[in-house]
Amino acid sequence: MAYWWKPAIVSMPTMTLSLADRGGMLKIEWGDIAFAPDAFVGEPPGKADISLDWGLDSSRSIHLFDGTIIKRGWTDENIPYDLYEPEHAEKVLDEGMDEQNTLDITACASYAGGAKTQMTTRTPHGLSADKEIFVQDTTDYNGGIVVDSIVSITEFVVEIAFTSTQTGVCSANVVSRPLVIGTVEHMTPQRTGQASEEKYYFPDFASADYYDGGVIINDHWTDNGDGTVSRSLSIVDGLTKSGTGNMTTLADVFTWAAARMGLTLSNLHGADVPVNRVIYENRLLVDFLDALAYYCGYMCWILDGVLYLVDRDQDNGVQVISEADRVEKTYAWKMPVKQYTAEWTQRKFDAAAVELVDDERRVVKYMGNSIGEKVALSEVFDETITDVAARIDAISARDAMPTIKLSLPLDRIPCPGQRLEFSDTKGSCNITGYLRMCKYSINYKSKTLAIEGPGAITVT
């Protein structure tokens, strides 16, 4: 049920939605919200889920926020709460144990009245408090777990409620399974198995060839049916694989990511952008999407259970701003860039040396500016110099666009990527132009919305 809360709200939360200068995911920054001391019947809740709208009534309002508020204080003047959006803690890569460094768990027992579980290993574990381990082959304790405390050289405690005495194995080395996107050369599969067993996790390839020291070895392999493959003959100089993954485009990656986060994907412009990369290091999925979208010239955001993806060079709707909207306009240009640089390492087979070598690759684009900053791409999602150079060309074209800022009445909130067209005839020159919105902030006191984004102007 919706309530008219204005008399009970002492201060509304500030809100800024923005895109980092070298980022691709729009993120929201919130302040706090404060209620009057008599806003609640009884004790104010410590935590609550809220939906916040701004307007005269439900038919004339704009939606601002869905999330959680957490109480931070309680005074005679107000009751302040912090605002939190739903968090997305999903990681890019699946994690598992290092099977070549395992310990047998011989017993699981209740600890601290059942609030925790004590585990016993067959041999000294060498663990310490706060160490992350991985447990598997049990029904109740599978996955990454942090050690709570040490009891003895073969006993440790985890802060997981005791469920059963079922045993299994654990490893002090938590490892991440590589992710293959697009066409890649000589990626290194992750080895599993015991001792000299030639068993490897099979990344998500649609088609691939095996190599030993750069020499193709597609024979004597067995698919174990559990995401691993084994070879009956020993690997001599190091196993690599070259091929094409089942995900090949930006659209494929975002489709997979939305499913991984339990979201619905909205992909307005198709995102048929090739991506070629092996991901070896784990991190938050939202951080990975932030870097990938920027590199590919897209931007993304999460709202109401939907992961949105739009091309930064195409329109997500069009709105014409009239002079009657009491618009204030500002035009700004970034410091010129005099040099763009991208560096990455590619494995390749050296025919002369008859071995695999690291090929250090570099693309440098000089912009013809004697004054300006140097920009180094933090990540590269291609393997060829030609593809990376094309990405830099697109990034430099966007960087050269002016940033246009508009101040509008707080009676609308444009969608990210929406094209806002305007005319400016107040000065000595007539100006027409547009911007694509990638940032806005709300000022409740003045009832205005500050919008900005890259665009273009024509002066006559």
Structure description:
It is flat and about 80 Å long. The protein folds into 6 domains: about 5-85, no CATH class; about 95-175, Elongation Factor Tu (Ef-tu), domain 3, CATH 2.40.30; about 185-245, no CATH class; about 250-310, Phage tail protein beta-alpha-beta fold (3-Layer(bab) Sandwich); about 320-335 and about 400-460; about 335-400. Strands 2, 3, 29, 30, 34, 35, 36, 37 and 38 form a 9-stranded mixed β-sheet that branches. It is mainly β and about 450 residues long.
Secondary-structure map:
Elements: E1 9-11, E2 15-19, E3 26-30, E4 32-35, E5 47-57, E6 60-71, E7 79-84, E8 95-97, E9 103-111, E10 116-121, E11 132-136, E12 143-152, E13 155-158, E14 168-171, E15 174-176, E16 179-181, E17 183-187, E18 191-192, E19 199-201, E20 205-212, E21 215-216, E22 221-223, E23 228-231, E24 239-245, H1 250-260, E25 264-267, E26 277-279, H2 285-296, E27 298-303, E28 306-311, E29 318-320, E30 328-332, E31 337-350, E32 355-366, E33 373-376, H3 385-399, E34 403-409, E35 419-424, E36 431-436, E37 439-443, E38 448-459
Parallel strand pairs: 25-28, 29-35, 31-33
Antiparallel strand pairs: 1-4, 2-3, 2-37, 4-7, 5-6, 6-7, 8-15, 9-10, 9-14, 10-13, 11-12, 11-14, 12-13, 16-26, 17-24, 18-19, 19-23, 20-21, 20-24, 22-23, 27-28, 30-34, 31-32, 34-38, 35-36, 36-38, 37-38
